[in-house]
Amino acid sequence: MLEYAGTLLTAFVFALVLGWVSIPILRRLKVGQSIRDVGPQMHLSKAGTPTMGGLIFIIAGLVATVLFMPRNPSGYLVLFMTVAYGSIGFADDFLKVVAKQPLGLKARHKIVGQLAAALLFYLALRVLDVDHALVVPGLGQLSLGWLYPLFVTVVALAATNAVNLSDGVDGLAGGLSIITLLGFTIVGAGAGLQGIAYPAVALAGGILGFLVFNLHPAKVFMGDTGSLALGGAIAAIAVLSHTELLLLFFFGLVFVLETVSVIIQVTYFKLTGRRVFLMAPIHHHFELRGWGEWKVCTWFWLVQALAMVAGVLVWLATR
User: What ranges do the domains of the chain cover?
Assistant: First the structure.
């Protein structure tokens, strides 16, 4: 456990240093976030805040993982998914803030990139001879056979887009991701899965350092660079540890609720022309109800933390 603590601390300190060095550079380069006028009006004042800050915890997490993790193919595969999806997000952010293309990467190009990364991930799973199965806690393995490639793709795309949807309040997505990753750290360490535990705790430490600059009022945003990278890492960890159901119902509960709120809002509006929430994702609904950003984060983090603890208890009871 001391090595895991050292990994987290190293990533945290490295992220702090990277933040102090890179944020002034991003300001000078005028790599500022554009704020859509369809969101809460109180967010318009954030226009121009440096973005692509996800590079801070990506780099910190990669460095700490490589320094501390024993050679482990699963761990390197988690890092691949982090970088692959982070690269897609970086391309999107770059087009928006540097090339001044407001829409960023075209939706079809983004989807193609995500599908390609998921396919490479699946092929690597075959090389590692990972069981093509879904583990149901307390019931055992359910073989997915030829459906497994589709299952892996759905997990990857769902996780990346869920984290991305949650990135709408200063510090929210980062804090939620730390909780999720710490849950996976406990599972990985308890099951002897070093390739899961080390990347998870390293990324958690990197995000913790990033939050020093990202908490309200944020000095930097993670951008799609960070949110897609976190989604890719979380998806890879869940698949490699066969804990996809733990992610869905416990470790990533708030991510799921954010996604479901968007699905409900869009579907209900198309059917009736009316809205269920004041605005979706649901964190914006609470903002428009008068909640400040700190209050939104505090309550959402608390829900995620309680769900994570429940998930760990379920895992311990059924392993």
Answer: 2-245
